[in-house]
């Protein structure tokens, strides 16, 4: 992580301080691809976000979204449409996974 950002976060998020930190700290009220540019600059707020740029399975997506804001917005829109078509299972019809990557073991 960028040392300058770490120092800033240490001040903002000091112990016993209730602070809000935006995940995109440059254009926090805009819907754009700046989040991905910040990750490439090692300025991701969450470790999970920073690992997106480092993992072989996601690094090309991060760099693609960082370099092409239209691509990011189009992919985001497609994902939202797809997510909206999912029918939520309720009650005994569904389950909450302990690990989102695998089914829970049968009881």
UniProtKB/TrEMBL annotation:
Keywords: Calcium, Heme, Hydrogen peroxide, Iron, Metal-binding, Oxidoreductase, Peroxidase, Secreted
A GO MF label: metal ion binding
Secreted found in the keyword field: yes
Entry binding sites for Ca(2+): 24, 27, 32
Name this protein carries in UniProt: peroxidase
Domain Plant heme peroxidase family profile, chain residue ranges per copy: 1-104
EC number: 1.11.1.7
Catalytic activity annotation: 2 a phenolic donor + H2O2 = 2 a phenolic radical donor + 2 H2O
Signal peptide residue numbers: none
Source organism: Castanea mollissima
Task performed by this protein: Removal of H(2)O(2), oxidation of toxic reductants, biosynthesis and degradation of lignin, suberization, auxin catabolism, response to environmental stresses such as wounding, pathogen attack and oxidative stress. These functions might be dependent on each isozyme/isoform in each plant tissue.
PANTHER family (alphabetical): PEROXIDASE, PTHR31517
Family assignment from sequence similarity: Belongs to the peroxidase family.
Keyword Cytoplasm carried by entry: no
Protein origin, superkingdom: Eukaryota
Cofactor dependence: Ca(2+); heme b
Cofactor details (free text): Binds 2 calcium ions per subunit.
BP GO terms, sorted: hydrogen peroxide catabolic process; response to oxidative stress
């Amino acid at each position: 992580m960028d040392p300058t950002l770490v120092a800033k976060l240490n001040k903002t998020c000091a112990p016993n301080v209730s602070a809000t930190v935006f995940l995109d700290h440059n254009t926090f009220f805009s819907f754009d691809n700046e989040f991905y540019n910040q990750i490439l600059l090692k300025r991701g707020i969450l470790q999970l976000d920073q690992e997106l740029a480092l993992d072989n399975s996601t690094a090309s997506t991060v760099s693609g979204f960082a370099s092409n804001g239209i691509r990011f917005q189009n992919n985001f829109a497609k994902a939202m449409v797809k997510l909206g078509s999912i029918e939520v299972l309720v009650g005994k019809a569904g389950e909450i996974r302990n690990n989102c990557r695998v089914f829970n073991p049968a009881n």
